[in-house]
Design a protein that fits this description.
Layout lengths: L5 H5 L2 E5 L7 H8 L7 E6 L1 H11 L4 E4 L12 E6 L16 H16 L5 E4 L4 H6 L7 H8 L6 E6 L2 E5 L9 H4 L2 H17 L7 E5 L14 H15 L3 E6 L1 H4 L2 H4 L4 E4 L2 H12 L4 E5 L5 E3 L17 H20 L1
Parallel strand pairs: 1-2, 1-5, 2-4, 3-4, 5-12, 7-10, 8-9, 8-10
Antiparallel strand pairs: 6-7, 6-11, 11-12
Helix pairs in contact: 8-9
């Protein structure tokens, strides 16, 4: 075994999962491998898939086998690969249900490595939820799966672009189910996680959190819904009594007005499409999905598998690259604060 230097041993190691093999995930991994990152970068994927996709899109990235015993600074134009073989050959843009278990196996390997501190963070490429469900595994998304696999009591989805941070009280639910899912305990738990991670992972002192109402005009005094008075406001008051600087309920159609938003460090939206369209509008090519409340660091892109772009070489790696940078920042904070 080649001994590692003190410098090498301190280099953080970031694991990339390639996601749905028929999507753009493999080429996103190849694209970021051409960039400069102050870490050891490892891609968990089928080596032959990466080789085939590199040839298809004209990537010159040199692939090598991952050595878990040696950490070294990433060299642009190279990529260490933990080879996990596909169940069936993958065709860019064409889903194959036979490879659905492979997607979760790669994710499981990344999670296990992060829990064991083999990896300091994981960055996930997009998966196809429908295909995983078609293969017989109930799967609503990375966020929920990560919470289950890491035994976290709750995981919170947060999207960030620059200084804009938007977290979600509920994630992948049909809109008709959101109201029933909201309760005081849930919102309190999400606010506690959001406050803790903004403090510990972003280094914010007394982070200011705006809490959205659920209904138009935050319920209009009860005329447009009672969830604000019955659930959201009591949760805010409970958290304020515990020293968390939460404000609201704030109408969702005004909180994102720039001069109002400037008074907050994060926004808590009540459901997926209440908050995330704003983040994606502000920075679709730089927005990053961060999972809060986990014992590990996980970031991801803010988009899907883009099957129509797979194999074309036209997939924009901006969000994936930003996810690596955010993962590095959070991993460094975790190393200092535990």
């Amino acid at each position: 075994m080649k001994p590692t230097s003190n410098l090498e041993s301190e280099v953080p190691r970031i694991a990339l999962t390639c996601g749905e093999p028929a999507g753009i995930g493999p080429e996103l991994c190849l694209a970021v491998a051409s960039e400069t990152f102050p870490c050891d970068l490892v891609c968990l994927c089928d080596m032959d898939l990466l080789t085939e996709r590199a040839l298809r899109i004209g990537s010159r990235v040199s692939l090598r086998r991952y050595d878990p015993l040696t950490r070294a600074q990433h060299t642009p134009g190279t990529l260490a690969v933990y080879h996990h073989p596909l169940a069936a050959p993958s065709v860019a843009g064409t889903l194959d249900v036979r490879n659905a278990p492979y997607v979760l196996q790669v994710l499981d390997r990344a999670i296990d490595g992060a829990l064991a501190r083999e990896f300091d963070a994981i960055v996930t490429a997009p998966v196809h939820k429908g295909l995983i469900n078609d293969a017989g595994t109930a799967f609503t998304g990375h966020t929920e799966y990560l919470a289950q696999r890491t035994h976290a009591s709750r995981a919170v989805m947060l999207l960030t672009s620059g200084t804009l941070r938007v977290a979600l009280a509920t994630t992948h639910l049909p809109l008709k189910d959101v109201s029933a899912a909201l309760n005081i305990e849930l919102i309190c738990e999400v606010l506690e996680i959001l406050h803790r991670d903004l403090t510990q992972r972003w280094g914010l002192t007394a982070p200011r959190i705006a809490v959205c109402g659920l209904n138009p005009h935050a319920g209009e005094g009860g005329y447009l819904g009672d969830e604000e008075a019955r659930v959201i406001a009591p949760a805010i008051e409970r958290m304020r009594a515990r020293g968390i600087e939460a404000r609201g309920p704030v109408p969702a159609d005004t909180i994102f007005v720039p001069h109002i938003l400037a008074g907050y460090d994060a926004v808590l939206a009540m459901y997926h499409d209440q908050g995330l369209p704003v983040v994606k509008h502000v920075g679709f090519e730089s927005a990053v999905n961060v999972t809060l409340g986990l014992p590990i660091v996980r970031t991801s892109v803010d988009h899907g598998t883009a099957l129509e772009l797979a194999g074309s070489g036209r997939a924009n790696p901006g969000s994936f690259s930003a996810a690596v940078h955010v993962a590095l920042h959070l991993a460094a904070r975790r190393a200092v604060h535990g």
